[in-house]
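Changelog note: in this version the structure field was regenerated for every chain. One regenerated record is shown below for reference.
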Amino acid sequence: MGTTQLETVPEPKYWHLKTVLSEALDTDFSVGEILPNERDLAARFGVARATLRQALEQLELEGRLHRRRGVGTTVAPPRVDVSTSQHTWPGAADDVWQPADCTTATIAAAPAAVTRMFTGVEGELHTVRRTRTTHGQPVAAELLYVPAASVPELPAIEAPSGPVRARSVLRELQRLGLDGQDRAVELGSARADDAKELDRLPGAPVLVVTTRYFAQGRTAAVSVATYRADTCRLTFGDSGDLEISHHGPAAHAS
């Protein structure tokens, strides 16, 4: 990254610097590489350290940089695509999620928004917790709700919880014929448990993707996946269909 003196521009100096730095990240640095310290960067671009900090903070908010005390500022990996065109069960062969745990309770004990999707379904509900990482960094956490009626052959002798049980639920779910799915996407704020999973502060912006899977004429499973908004981007399938709603979820995609 060569020396660049900033010229007078109508936009804030830190914003112009952010643009210059962003271009340099694409050409001069690799993922995970540590940037020079603030003093050297400020001198190289001929700006005050306060201006540099503003630019770095903005790049961090946009997911281009990771800043960690004791480590320094590193180049973030590319954003993860959140596709709206997937038509496979969770746990398929090409699934990038890792099962972490599974618990069982009644459907009535699930969050109200989830319970409403299982209208007419009673009995136990398996909740599979999964995580997704890229370049060793957590980017998403998911809660997959599966009624016992969707996995009737689930072995009763295996562990009642944990990753082994989670994999069993996912394996049994594959036995159903998938009729279709619908998906809703909305911008939200990380709750305390989500923030811990994603290595973010509570209240950090997240994308919440709710997917309802249909089989045998009913809702067979519901996924609520929370993605770090600074590391992900939404992509659409061949149809590009998008329905904007001003009531309830912010966006519905197919």
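Spot check on this record: Confidence is low (pLDDT under 50) at residues 240-254. The two ends are 42 Å apart (CA to CA).
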